[in-house]
Amino acid sequence: MVTAVEKAVVRGPPRCYHPAMRKEDEERIAARLAKVMAMMCVRNTKLEDIHAGLVPVTKTGDYSDVVVVDADGREIPWAEVSHIDDAQMRELMKEIVNRLYTFHMRIDDPEFQAWVDRWASVAAKWDDPNVEDGMLK
């Protein structure tokens, strides 16, 4: 009997695209979908609140010359300052999960598809994505 591992070895690495579709077309569609989902489900969230506000001036370019002084008078180097607390992270992740869920549940709705198409034209200006090999580590 041939095991699943042996079958995988025989057929080689898994293909991430549908066999009836050209790899280039699948990659183009996946890139468009990834960008529009990032725009609709991540970018336009509470992440904008975190992004908003004053950006400190740095003369070194790497913010090593920037410190934050807290209410106790501690000077904390910029690179060591938490820019989001646990409650904000939970709230952000809940919103992103809800938006991703909504995206998947509404993708067949023509009205929602029109909304996706509008955002896709904005997201199309972004850099094309790359496979993030470190994601599964």
Write structural notes for this entry:
It is a single chain. The chain has 137 residues and is mainly α. The chain has a domain at 21-53 and 84-128. Helix content is 50%, strand content 4%. It has helices at 4-11, 23-43, 47-51, 86-106, 110-123, and strands at 67-69, 75-77. The protein has a two-stranded antiparallel ribbon with strand order 1-2. Strand 1 (67-69) and strand 2 form a beta hairpin. Helix 2 crosses helix 4. Residues 5-12 have low confidence and may be disordered.
Keywords, separated by commas or semicolons:
137 residues, single chain, two-stranded antiparallel sheet, 5 helices, mainly alpha
SSE diagram, text form:
Elements: H1 4-11, H2 23-43, H3 47-51, E1 67-69, E2 75-77, H4 86-106, H5 110-123
The percentage of residues in β strands lies in under 5%
Compute the average pLDDT: 86
Low-pLDDT runs of 5+ residues are 5-12
Residues in helices, as a percent range: 40-55%
What letter string, H or E per element, gives the SSE order? HHHEEHH
How are the strands of the largest sheet arranged? 1-2
Describe this structure in a few short sentences:
The protein has a domain at 21-53 and 84-128. Helices cover 50% and strands 4% of the residues. It has helices at 4-11, 23-43, 47-51, 86-106, 110-123, and strands spanning 67-69, 75-77.
